[in-house]
Amino acid sequence: MLDLPRSSQRFEGKPRDEDARLTKRILELVRERPRWGYRQICQLLRREGETLNMKKMHRLWKAAGLKVPQKRRKKRATGVSTNACHVQPASFMHDVWTWDFIQSSTGERSAF
């Protein structure tokens, strides 16, 4: 026993039954409110009568692998949809000028 290194003789804590019960309740609350973080869930648990501090709540939150999903931002439309090229028909001859470039590049070759 005397030749063993001290690093191999560390105390390993065992998870409590209370932690498993709290984790189960946390997961239930997260399913009901997916946009809430660990602080708001902790407040709900305290209102239910649980006694836990933020450090313990954060540890249980991370151990369960929970994260609040990032809110996706909507892309803002630029311009007015009434002026879109697929909505407006050509109003006069050669109004759609992009076709001229496509035709000249794919059609007949001109000598420059």
Automatic annotation (TrEMBL):
Transmembrane annotation, as ranges: none
Pfam families from the UniProt entry: HTH_21
Domain of life: Bacteria
Chain ranges of the HTH-like domain: 19-74
Positions in coiled-coil regions: none
Classification via PANTHER family: BLR2054 PROTEIN (PTHR47515:SF1), LOW CALCIUM RESPONSE LOCUS PROTEIN T (PTHR47515)
Protein name: HTH-like domain-containing protein
Origin species: Blastopirellula retiformator
